[in-house]
Amino acid sequence: MYEVTTIISKFTLRKSTKGYRILRLVLQEAVSLYPTDISLEQLCLRVQKSAGGANPKSLQRALGRTIDMIWECTTNHILLDKIYQYPVTEKPSAKDFICSVVDYIKNSMFPNDPSCLLLTPTLSPYIFKTSKGHSYLVVGCDETISPQQIRDAIDSINQRGDS
User: Fold this and answer.
1) Is 2-109 assigned to CATH 3.40.50?
2) I want to staple 27 with a disulfide (CB 3.0 to 4.6 A). Which of 4, 60, 80, 86 is the partner?
3) CA distance 136 to 132
4) Tens digit of pLDDT for each residue in 59-93?
């Protein structure tokens, strides 16, 4: 929760609005589900009770209005550019905004976390490094690998300093 509140509090946005509270709830839920991809409607369904039992469609509309308010305040564009890692020239959709903020939070919290395990059909295990500098252990689906081997590989990545 701390990371979500820290990030969205940096936006110029009235914290007393219903939309701010809903945005915080939806982002917290999305962060907890990361890296699972879930629709905006499903996210709103999951936070419906916490949001006072509001209809998921009305929650989506409130999120849309909140994103509009964030976009309309040009001082927020600097933070949006930082979150998206490129200049944002068009107002993002609510789903795109949520996904981008969640990715930003996760990448900020765990910049060297190699905990993602990628599976491929035929390749031997190797370390894949993304353009953002994150390392991932890639394992072939047809190979038997023990949890200890995965932990050892992750420890090896961490000891090398993600180089």
Assistant:
1) no
2) 4
3) 12
4) 999 999 999 999 999 999 999 999 998 899 999 99
The tokens 């945005």 sit on which residue?
Answer: 23
Enter the pTM of the model: 0.65
Distance CA 64, CA 48 (A): 16
* Three-state secondary structure string covering the chain: CHHHHHHHCCCCCCCCCHHHHHHHHHHHHHHHHCCCCCCHHHHHHHHCCCCCCCCHHHHHHHHHHHHHHHHHCHHHHHHHHHHHCCCCCCCCCHHHHHHHHHHHHHHHHCCCCCCCEEEECCCCCEEEECCCCCEEEEEECCCCCCHHHHHHHHHHHHHCCCC
